[in-house]
Amino acid sequence: MKHLPLLFILLFSTLLSAQRDKPVPEKIDSVDYYIQLANFNLKINNYQNALESSQNAIEVSQKKGNKEQEANAYTFLGSIYFELKKYDDAIETYVRSISLYNDLEPSTEQAYCYYNLGLCYMEKGKYGVAEIYFDKANAIYETINIPDAKELLNLQKGILYKAKGKTQLAATIFNSIIAKPDNNDSFKTKAEALYQVGAIEFEAGRNNLALNYLKRALDLNSKSDNFEQKSKILKLISESYEKMMDIDNSFIYLKKHLALKDSIIRLNSQKIGAEAFEKFKESEQMKTIKQKDKENREQKKLIKVSKLTSVLSIALITILSLLSLSLYKNNIIRNRTNKQLQEKNTELEIAKDKAEKASQARAEFLSTVSHELRTPLNAINGITHLLIEENPKKSQIDYLKSLKFSGNYLLTFINEILEINRIESNNIEIENICFNLRQLLTDIQNSLKEIASQNNIDFGLEIDPEISTTFSGDPTKLSQIFMNLINNALKFTENGTVIVRANLLGETENKQNIYFEIVDTGIGIPIEKQEVIFESFSQGSVEINRKYGGTGLGLAIVKRLVSLLGGTIKLESTISKGSNFNFSLELEKGIENNESVKLFTNDSDFIDKKVLLVEDNKINQMVTRKMLEKKQIQCEIVDNGEDAIEAVRNNRYDLVLMDVHLPGINGTIATQSIRKFDKKTPIIALTAISLNENREMLLSFGMTDVITKPFNPEAFYRVIAESMS
Question: Which of 245, 344, 424, 663 is the most buried (most CB within 10 A)?
Answer without folding.
Answer: 424
